[in-house]
Structures are given as C-alpha cells and as structure tokens.
Write a structure and sequence with these properties.
It contains 5 helices and no strands. With 156 residues, it is mostly helical. Helix 4 packs across helix 5.
Amino acid sequence: MLLVAIALMWFYALFIANQANTVDELGEPTFPRAAQPVCANVLDRFRQLDLVNKVAASPEERGVLVDKADAQLVVMVQTLRALVPSPGNDATAVTKWLDDWDQWLRDRATWSEKLRRNEDAPFLEKQRDNRQPNSKALDDFARTNEMPACTTPAGV
C-alpha cells in the first residue's frame, strides 16, 4: 500500500502538478499602479481605432489590423520600460516581463508579414520551456500583479 501511495505521489509530481506556477509577484505595488492606466489607455485606443473584434475580409487586411494594434502595443511597452522600478527583484521581474512582451511582438510581426502576403497563417508564438505559449506567462504576471489591462489583448 505504501508503495502505491509513493508511486501515485511521484506520478502526480511529475505529470500532473503545474510546475511552471512560478509567477513573480512584485514586492511593491508602485509599478502595477503606474502600469495599469498605461495599458488601459492602449485598450481605449484600440476601441477608438476600431481594432477590437474587427472582422477582416482577407489575410492581408488582417495583417494591416495587426500592424495597427501592434504599433500601439510597442508604444505601451516603451512607456512601461520608463516605469521600471529601481534595481532589485521587482526591476528584474518587470524587465523580464517586458522582454517577453518584446518577444511576443516579434512573433506578431512575423505573423503579420505572412498575413500581408495574403497567407492565411495562424499566429505562432514562442513556447516556453513548460510548453505554454509566451502569452500565458505575460497574462499570468499581469493578473498576479493586479494589472488586468496589461494582459495580451484578445480580439486584435
């Protein structure tokens, strides 16, 4: 019986438990408080530019929409970089998160190039070591640190 319990414990630890649940929780709320309105402004800008849940008639048109949205996201990431806390654990975590945003935007640019060539290509983003898409880590960090507007945008 003990051997079965030990075997089940190891099976759970190796195959079921979410070992990637190591989202950085910032020690100070300063960055999240400053970042949330920056991200919320970008979401408002998406609505103003009529980019949310827009149906494109062709892959090429979708590429144009992606480029318009990503131009706003690039500015958002640049603005957030100016808000990175002083050197320390929070600064390291925020910088890594912003670096992940840069990677996500590079992946979107690659996708957009294909779309603008009228290829009906899926969005392929970097997969992390745990086989999760990069956007999951971006979103987990944003949610953990109470920045819901700073998750990757859906529908753009």
